[in-house]
Structures are given as structure tokens and as C-alpha cells.
């Protein structure tokens, strides 16, 4: 195996109200966002809607794919590309 370096910097934002930063933070990376989630259910629907709204307010186009299943197959991943 050849030697290589891999760098994946991660920023974790944790705490009450931190979701309100999502538009500003996401806008640093471009103008389009693919939001990948499980099927919306009542407890999460308002959170998904809030994230989408905050991103749109920051000038970000959001594509929401809610077809994720546990242990996704290549078929389910291919659905996200359609």
C-alpha cells in the first residue's frame, strides 16, 4: 500500500439554539445544499423545516432527500441522484 495523508476537519456545534447558525455556516461552502435525512416523522418535521428555512434565508438552494434507510443499499443511494 502506498503511504498517504487524509485530513477531514470536522466542526461540531452543540448547544441550545445552535441550529440557528446553520444558514450562515452552510453558506461558507456554496449556494446549494443536499439535506439527506430519514423519512420525516412528526417529531422531526419541524426541525427539518427550520433547517430548510434557515438555509433558504441565507441564499442557499436546498434539495431535501428523505429516502435514507438503515444500512442503505446502492439502490437507495442511487435514488438520491435522481
Mind explaining what this structure looks like?
The chain is globular and about 45 Å long. The chain has helices at residues 22-27, 42-57, 74-80, and strands at residues 32-36, 61-65. The mean pLDDT is 90. It has a domain at 28-80. The chain has 3 helices and 2 strands, in the order H-E-H-E-H. Helix 2 links the parallel strand 1 (32-36) and strand 2. The chain is 35% helix and 12% strand. By secondary structure, the protein is α+β, with helices and mostly antiparallel strands.
Oligomer: single chain
Shape: globular
What is the number of helices? 3
Query: Main sheet: which strands, in order across?
Result: 1-2
Instruction: Look at the helices and sheets and give the structural class.
Output: alpha+beta
Assess the beta-strand content as a share of residues: 5-15%
In total, the number of strands is 2
| Mean residue pLDDT | 90
Organism: marine sediment metagenome
Pfam family, one: Fe-ADH
Domain Alcohol dehydrogenase iron-type/glycerol dehydrogenase GldA: 9-80
Keywords: Oxidoreductase
Summarize the structure.
This protein is 35% helix and 12% strand. It has 3 helices and 2 strands.
Task: Please name the defining characteristics of this protein.
3 helices; metal ion binding; ADH_Fe/GldA; 82 residues
How is the secondary structure organized here?
Blueprint: H1 22-27, E1 32-36, H2 42-57, E2 61-65, H3 74-80
Parallel strand pairs: 1-2
